[in-house]
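fyi for ur records
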Amino acid sequence: MKKIQVGFLMSYDYEKLKYSIPPVYKEADTIYLALDNKQRTWKGNRFEIDEDFFTWIETFDTDKKIKIYRNNFYIPELSTLQNDTRERYLLAKEMGIGNWLIQVDADEIFIDFKAFVNTLKNNNSYLNNPVKTPIQIAGFLINIYKYLDNGILYVNEPTKVMLATNYPNYKRARNTKQRVIYTNNILLHECLSRTEKELKFKLENWGHSHEINSEFLPKWKKANETNYKELKNLFYLNPTIWKGLGYMPSKNLNKIRELIKSDNNLKVKQSFLNKKNFGQWFKFLKIFKKQNTTFESYFLK
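which gave:
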């Protein structure tokens, strides 16, 4: 117990795992790849996986840490978001309650996973009785908006992301709606850095597909290195969440990592973390004794 268990959802964007697995490999005890047993998205659409990818796993996995977890992750009666949440719950159960249960999407790349693991280990006391002390550990994403010929456009303000929990009572995707500990751990998020065809497929099969705003794709297609400062309110759901863009003159992931590390504007201030964490402590101190319906009783009854 008290292991560092990392789970990825393996779907149509599986090739991105070649970039997101290596940064976590050394520090993880086990890495789980959740794959629908009929290779379906949460909307029920089929996708194919090239056999070369499984060859890559065998070659890369020198310490035999990677396990492919197959199950039925598509229930027609559920919405895409409900299927998303259900798959994450089943994956977390497979990883084992009593461990740190980390879920990373295929298009999320840790900048410093060792630092994140140290953060988790400093909070190991929450693993002693997860049911009574449910907690979430959050970090922040640097969202790549679009790849250009000579660089990338990125959202110029980090956004929070739930990364780990001790008790996977998920309510909405990775969010358990329990107390959050915010940390200054940063990930690079390749959420929209795809071809137009790939992006349309992602949005159609995504857990939030029914919420996509109509102005998103035209703005994304229009954006370039000369007009990006003029474009505002760019998020694919509520547009105002992403207020503006920045530009980095490189498409090399290693170079982008270094640029992020050296950019003070992309660092999360300690004063901000302190304020957020005090607010979470106080909020859940007051409501801790409220009864909460578990995910399992809701979806798996």
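The domain at 4-197+201-206+263-288 is CATH 3.90.550 (Spore Coat Polysaccharide Biosynthesis Protein SpsA; Chain A). thats all i got for now
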